[in-house]
From TrEMBL:
The keyword Calcium applies. The keyword Calcium applies. InterPro entries: EF-hand-dom_pair, EF_Hand_1_Ca_BS, EF_hand_dom. Residues 37-72 form the EF-hand domain. Keywords: Calcium. One of its GO terms (molecular function) is calcium ion binding. It comes from Dreissena polymorpha (Zebra mussel). This is EF-hand domain-containing protein. PROSITE patterns: EF_HAND_1 (PS00018), EF_HAND_2 (PS50222). Pfam families: EF-hand_7. SUPFAM superfamilies: EF-hand.
Length: 82
């Protein structure tokens, strides 16, 4: 992961953490993703990211998911080129 992506992710994390708890709760994720995303999708996504099952998302959990998503996109693009 590039430093730029890590810092961008950190900035978005801080913005989403409206109660400044250094954790993202489900309601904060819902606010971040907006009304276009269904409650079921938000709940499933939250539960996938919450690897320690604490009911909150810490920065490391979010950063890990962002890194995985970026790698998937890169892999999909490399497959599409072939």
């Amino acid at each position: 992961m590039t430093l730029h992506r890590a810092l961008t992710t950190e900035l978005k994390f801080i913005q989403a953490d409206t109660d400044q708890s250094r954790l993202i709760e489900m309601c904060e994720l819902r606010d971040l993703l907006g009304e276009d995303v269904s409650d079921l999708t938000i709940e499933r996504t939250f539960n996938e990211i919450d690897t320690d099952k604490s009911g909150t998302l810490d920065f490391l959990e979010v950063l890990t998911v962002v890194d995985c998503l970026v790698q998937r996109v890169r892999m999909d693009l490399s497959v599409a080129v072939w």
